């Protein structure tokens, strides 16, 4: 008896905190999404108007489009490089494996604020390091932070820099967990290196690849700090760096449209959920 | 040259080249923090160290209350880490080694909470903080974050495998109640798991930006990330100073990470592959 009571006491902090700081805000945000409120005055019932407005709000859809573009620019090179690094590190004769893992992982520990400040200097329009590189090989200078695609490239490259090592470590662990006997058996059966790569390595890695795709989808849809530091609350030139969360932040806390901000939150939630399911199906579907 | 040594040459060139790209922003950060702002705006860029580090640092210390922000961040990150370790291990141990009615669906509920994006409830959470009178207070940063589902899940996995049931039975025969078992038997065994969860939590809180940006209204309570972003916004002509401040804020985390990197990286990898 005493023991069971103690067990409930032991697990209760999480549920109490979740009820207060998780469940209640979620319920309240649903309520808020149907109201008009500036945070100080009276809350007035607004029906579906916040959602209706969102569906026709060009800025919202631009933010959705931007977020997707940045996600694509970031995720494809990130997972590609991560896979290559993992394969190189997995080669049996590599020495200093720990040193390499730490070196590749280090960017992930750095704060995004710091990363955004450094990348601001790398991509600066006039004196940036990248423009110096371009010029020194005889290419024209690019005004990265004035061009809509340039802003997206700058934001994506921060994500790539910060997360490639992280994903490489995960792929490496996946590679190391594939039983060596599978490769030996394939060799005896006369399989070539390429055959065993596509027949053994890729199928065995699929769950790990799925994990990295899902986590980078969720992370990518929630991008905020990188654009906010790099180009500010309005998303920079042509709002090209306006992501969904940045838009939610601006509408809620800069413009004080709390009700509309809550509706945008639900829109984002739906998009993440749908997109995660689609990704899940795509990556899983290939295995059958 | 044999084909094998050629292969390994290519491999090392690839690995080292990749690592140079990975490390270059750090290097450039250090170089720029030792230069004047007009050096930074020079074309071609300066790639070697200058002698202005101390000047830049002293301007950071004049412009913002750097040590104040540093101590704020250390206090919040440290306290949240200790609380998370305590509450998560207590709950993780209970879930791993004991039976009680409702355990299964309580655990499923716990996992389900990890799926909800925190930005969804950004506005109501802020309203809640305002209602409690916690806006502008560290309570808003510490209390909602002091126990989390991920840590409970992670400790549970670790405890299930690493704490022998015989040891718990022996403790019970000696008359230990749940909390004595937790304190005397589980805690010492769980210590290696604390290194990862502690570092993971500490780094996360140290680097948190969006939530502190919303709830911290008083400059004396700013954490490093917020103070740094203010520096970036207000004085963006004095770029050398901003960069020097950035360097100062990054160094403690990097030092900590280098100390625990081996354990940290292998635990992250293990967590991802297990599922």
TrEMBL record, chain B:
PROSITE patterns: ABC_TM1 (PS50928). CDD domains: TM_PBP2. Its main location: membrane. It is a multi-pass membrane protein. The chain crosses the membrane at residues 9-30, 66-93, 105-128, 134-155, 181-206, 239-260. Belongs to the binding-protein-dependent transport system permease family. This is Carbohydrate ABC transporter membrane protein 2 (CUT1 family). It comes from Paenibacillus pabuli.
């Amino acid at each position: 008896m005493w023991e069971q009571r103690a067990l409930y006491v032991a697990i209760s902090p999480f549920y109490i905190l979740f009820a207060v700081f998780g469940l209640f805000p979620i319920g309240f945000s649903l309520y808020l999404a149907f109201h008009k409120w500036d945070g100080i005055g009276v809350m007035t019932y607004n029906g579906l108007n916040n959602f209706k407005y969102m569906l026709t709000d060009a800025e919202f859809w631009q933010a959705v489009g931007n977020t997707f573009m940045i996600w694509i620019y970031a995720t494809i090179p990130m997972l590609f490089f991560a896979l290559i690094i993992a394969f190189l590190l997995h080669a049996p004769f590599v020495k200093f494996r720990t040193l390499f893992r730490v070196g590749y992982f280090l960017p992930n520990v750095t704060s995004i604020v710091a990363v955004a400040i450094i990348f601001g200097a790398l991509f600066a329009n006039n004196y940036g390091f990248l423009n110096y590189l371009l010029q020194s090989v005889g290419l024209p200078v690019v005004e990265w932070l004035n061009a809509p695609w340039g802003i997206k490239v700058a934001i994506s490259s921060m994500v790539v820099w910060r997360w490639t090592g992280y994903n490489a470590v995960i792929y490496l662990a996946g590679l190391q967990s594939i039983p060596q006997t599978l490769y030996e058996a394939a060799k005896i059966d006369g399989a070539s290196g390429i055959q065993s790569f596509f027949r053994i390595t890729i199928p065995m890695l699929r769950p790990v690849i799925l994990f990295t795709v899902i986590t980078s989808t969720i992370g990518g849809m929630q991008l905020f700090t990188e654009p906010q530091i790099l180009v500010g609350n309005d998303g920079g030139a042509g709002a090209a760096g306006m992501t969904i969360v940045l838009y939610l932040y601006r509408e809620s806390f800069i413009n004080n449209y709390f009700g509309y901000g809550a509706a945008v939150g639900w829109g984002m939630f739906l998009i993440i959920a749908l997109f995660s399911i689609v990704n899940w199906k795509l990556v899983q579907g290939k295995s059958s | 040259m044999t084909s094998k040594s050629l292969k390994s040459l290519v491999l090392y060139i690839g690995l080292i080249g990749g690592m140079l790209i990975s490390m270059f922003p750090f290097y450039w950060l250090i170089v720029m923090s030792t230069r004047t702002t007009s050096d930074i705006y020079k074309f071609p860029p300066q790639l070697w160290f200058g002698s202005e580090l101390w000047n830049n640092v002293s301007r950071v210390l004049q412009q913002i209350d750097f040590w104040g922000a540093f101590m704020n961040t250390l206090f919040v990150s440290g306290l949240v880490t200790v609380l998370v370790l305590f509450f998560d291990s207590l709950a993780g141990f209970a879930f791993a080694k004991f039976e009680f009615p409702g355990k299964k669906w309580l655990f499923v509920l716990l996992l389900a909470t990890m799926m909800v994006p925190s930005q969804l409830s950004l506005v109501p959470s802020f309203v809640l903080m305002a209602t409690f009178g916690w806006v502008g207070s560290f309570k808003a940063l510490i209390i909602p974050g002091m126990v989390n589902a991920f840590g409970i899940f992670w400790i549970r996995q670790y405890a299930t495998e690493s704490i022998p049931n015989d040891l718990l039975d022996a403790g019970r025969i000696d008359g230990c109640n749940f909390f004595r078992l937790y304190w005397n038997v589980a805690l010492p065994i769980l210590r290696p798991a604390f290194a990862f969860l502690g570092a993971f939590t500490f780094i996360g809180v140290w680097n948190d930006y969006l939530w502190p940006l919303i709830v911290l209204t008083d400059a004396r309570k700013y954490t490093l990330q917020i103070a740094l972003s203010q520096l970036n916004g207000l004085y963006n002509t004095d770029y050398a100073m901003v960069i020097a401040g950035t360097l100062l804020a990054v160094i403690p985390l990097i030092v900590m990470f280098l100390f625990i990197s081996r354990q940290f990286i292998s635990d992250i990898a293990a967590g991802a592959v297990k599922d």
